[in-house]
């Protein structure tokens, strides 16, 4: 409830006229004269502060809302269960059984003798004279001539070339990088710190209290018009004081320094090196040489001579001739006939039964019930609001840069009493 009341008061004060909204954050003080705003000029020279503004209070109505718990009666529909007996019919399939004559097909088996014929292949032995060609092998000597390669070895003179290694001194040249050191002048930059005195104007406020025994100095920039957010107990007088400080400037100095520079100079060196060479040496050597010489040789060889002749030989074989045989066999003869048989038949007949059952019916009825709810009720409160009035002319915002231009022109003080807000 307190949170809603505070939010409503803040919304009303922000929506009020600009003349009322300037004193929200300790600008005009608590029932006392508002402290004079601090004016800082663009130049470091001190500027005189304007006279304090007059404060008046105006009564204003503020509407807030509070939550109240209330109770009201609401009509509700309630359904009540009502059980009644309801007659109904249902069908039951009842089984029944009876006997009746029905024809049945049956078969009678009878074995009878049946004559039949079958063919049998009967084997018969036979013989006859047949000519057969035979072959006779005979080995005979046949004269032949053949050439044979015979090996013959002779000694021949042949030249053989060999190589020997000879080391020879050959002149050569190669380049060597020889280091040479010289002294050269090179520029070198160093940095030196040079002290410098700087003067700066700093704003200073003086507090005085004739009856409270409080006096002192401090800065005049704080939240709410005092030092570090605390309002001073009495009027404040602001001024400027010149403060000197020493600043070190970094200055570059360039000087020429002797530097040893080493360079590599190519130098040609003459010398000799060992080179291996191969020289050919020819030598006459006796070499045995083997050659194959063809020689004609006469002789005889064995050959197989095949001679054919015809000879009559008795040949016997077995032949199969068909023979028809008559016989009888047993055959099953099936004769169909019809026979009347007593059959038991099962059937289901529908039977209707009557009965009663319980049925639930919902009966509606209107009932009044108490319902609790919360309602926002407006509350009118009279609040005294301080108003600041401008009494003296203010410096131009373009030259001072302290408060907003629109706020200074309308109200005469800043909304938060802080420069640049």
What do these coordinates show?
- The chain is mainly β and 421 residues long.
- It has one domain.
- The protein has four helices and three strands, in the order ααβββαα.
- It has helices at 2-15, 18-21, 397-400, 405-410, and strands spanning 54-208, 215-218, 236-389.
- A three-stranded antiparallel beta sheet has the order 2-1-3.
- Strand 1 (54-208) and strand 2 form a beta hairpin.
- The longest helix is centred in the first third of the chain and has 14 residues, at 2-15.
- Mean pLDDT is 77; it is low at 17-48, 210-235 and 391-421.
TL;DR?
With about 425 residues, the protein is mainly beta. The protein has helices at about 1-15, 20, 395-400, 405-410; strands at about 55-210, 215-220, 235-390.
List keywords for this structure.
7% helix, flat, 421 residues, three-stranded antiparallel β-sheet, single chain, mainly beta, disordered C terminus, 4 helices
Shape type: flat
How many discrete structural domains? Answer: 1
Q: Could you say which structural class the secondary elements and strand pairing correspond to?
A: mainly beta
Number of helical regions: 4
Terminal CA distance reads 33 Å
- Provide the residue-averaged pLDDT: 77
